[in-house]
Amino acid sequence: MSNSKEKLSFFENVNRNFDRAAQFTSHPKGLLEQIKGCNSVYAFQFPVRTSKGFEVLHGWRVEHSYHKLPVKGGIRYSDFVDEDEVKALAVLMTFKCAVVDVPFGGAKGAIKINPKSYTVTDLELITRRYTAELIRKNYIGPGVDVPAPDYGSGPREMAWIADTYAAFNPGKIDALACVTGKPVAEGGVRGRTEATGRGIYYGLREACDNAEDMKKLGLTQGLSGKRVVVQGLGNVGYYASKFCHEGGAIIVGLAEYEGAIYNPKGLDIDAVVKHRKETGSILKFPGAKDIPNTLEALELECDVLIPAALEEQITDENASRIKAKIIAEGANGPTTADAEEILLKKGVMVIPDMYLNAGGVTVSYFEWLKNLSHVRFGRMDKRFEQSAFDKMLQAVEQATGKSFSSFERKEIVKGADEIDLVNSGLEETMTTAYNQIREIWKSNSKIPDLRTAAFLSAINKVATSYVDLGIFP
Ligand code: GLU
Questions:
Q1: Which residues of the chain have pLDDT under 70?
Q2: Is residue 73 lining ligand 1, measured as CB closer than 6 Å?
Q3: Which among 162, 186, 210 is the end of a domain?
Q4: Ligand 1 centroid distance, CA of 187 (Å)
Q5: CA 9, CA 13: separation in Å to the nearest integer?
Q6: Fewest CB within 10 A of the end CB: N or C in the chain?
Q7: pLDDT tens readout for residues 85-101
Q8: Distances (CA, A) of 12 to 6, 9, 147, 308, 328
Q9: Is 2 contained in some domain?
Q10: Structural domain count of the chain
Q11: Is residue 59 part of a domain?
């Protein structure tokens, strides 16, 4: 489909973004083709006997790029999923990993079910059966392909996957590294659950800290005081709202399936979540205005819009009505290529998904490293650091004659725990990557936006890998 008037599929949208960025490179056509295409698409069906009776379910695992191994990406549980979507998401994973220097290729998996319509026992059976299919075809393994949570799946499913893989591979010492996003007690890493939302906060904060860019948008420098609307109160949307709020932003709007709520004075996210649990809906939240048509939330008066639900939410149909100056893509593919052109003309800044939501896979990388090293981060050095800091404090006290309070001492002397190291690694990753893509964006006035710059950065990194591997000259 080359006519932009026709509705492009998600995969076509991603490819259009790829082509737009590829124009700025001088890589040979063959190399670009190799980078763009999905290396392997495994579509299968498998039978299960659930509480609903006998069923045949559809599953996929798409491995987009083998320039680095293992390949990495989540497993989506959704009854709307199709092959086009899984392919698009797998492509995004390759470029996402490259942008934040996570040394993996991209992949994505899916099971076509509505997880809400199954019992926990059903879901366990389905997950284990899906995993067995991946094992059978070598589509899972610590050095091959490492799944993770995605829309509709979480730590519980990842624990079932790890256990199934270990059962099929008795004695395999690195078995736990076959999947990330596991519960901490099952080999997970602290901070993984909130990593995508925390990463969004770090990325948005970095963008807002650039006075020159903010001035162009007619905004003040810094995230503090910015009015934010968030679409989606799942794991990503919830933590993104929470950390942005803690960073001084005002969450003025929240949208979910059932509708949206708006309060220009700000919404208390935890209170909204509690209200939703009690009433089954975010609507009728005290002090807030109800917006029954949830998509209208995207058009609310605000500075920053964080779409953190599903793909293709901002389209050529609603893009012209969007009032936000910054679109911070928490979800994968929330803005279509046509919508982006409209937004660009309006001068809106889009912080692209492949960079902004890379916090999840970044911390997945830390979890994988932890599983391979078989030791908790901080275990070896925490006490050593503490005693070194303590000795330093004593020396300062002796030299100055001043003594620190026990509170000050505790704060200064503290050695790093796993969570401190994970968050620090995440902050470093998101900050460095932002400046890398911004520099590319600013290096050539023809590069229209941050997304093209992010694609360009990623294409060049993947190309370098292929050249280094000796596959291309
Ligand atoms: N599903 C997440 C994403 O789209 C996480 C992937 C991972 O941790 O491997 O980025």
A1: 1-5
A2: yes
A3: 186
A4: 17
A5: 6
A6: C
A7: 999 999 999 999 999 99
A8: 11, 5, 24, 21, 22
A9: no
A10: 2
A11: yes
